[in-house]
Design brief:
Elements (H helix, E strand, L loop, with lengths): L1 E5 L2 E11 L3 E19 L5 E21 L2 E5 L2 E7 L2 E17 L2 E14 L6 E10 L9 H4 L2
Antiparallel strand pairs: 1-3, 2-3, 3-4, 4-5, 4-6, 5-7, 6-7, 7-8, 8-9
């Protein structure tokens, strides 16, 4: 097991072919780039490398269950990681909750687990993130503005 300091930067593109009142299905490609500093074996002072760069292309399927101003999101899928050691195939799974606070603003806390399947890079990790949607958030059921009056 390894521990390090990660500072990820990413982007994503999503296609939402199924959008229903209670269920959504979408396909997403997400690219991210992380830099790890002072990576060490757990429980020892052996330094593995002082700096490492890891690029990951995530390929999840997004499954949404809509419940008024809240959507529960599951994101199983695959991933491909690139670093100085080569290319690694991985599996990933995530859970998130999108909370639409206003018509044009939503937040989504999420947690994602990833593990390597084949390749030279050890990808056993969990990330915690917070996404902000600042534009027209999709509505399901009565509008949020109407509910707050």
């Amino acid at each position: 097991m390894q521990a390090g300091i990660l500072s990820p930067v990413g982007f994503d593109v999503k296609w939402n072919p199924v959008r229903g009142r209670t269920f959504d299905l979408a396909f997403m490609t997400r690219g991210s780039l992380s830099v790890s500093l002072g990576q060490r074996h757990e429980g020892t002072s052996e330094e593995l490398n002082s700096t490492g760069v890891l690029g990951v292309v995530h390929l999840p399927v997004l499954l949404g269950l809509n419940a008024g101003p809240v959507t529960f999101v599951g994101s199983p899928g695959g991933a491909i990681a690139f670093d100085r050691r080569g290319t690694t195939a991985a599996v990933r799974a995530g859970l998130g909750i999108q909370i639409r606070l206003r018509r044009r603003f939503a937040v989504q806390p999420e947690v994602t687990w990833m593990s390597d399947v084949k390749g030279p890079t050890d990808l056993g990790f969990v990330t915690i993130g917070l996404a902000f949607q600042i534009r027209q958030a999709p509505g399901y059921g009565p509008s949020i503005e109407t509910e707050r009056k």
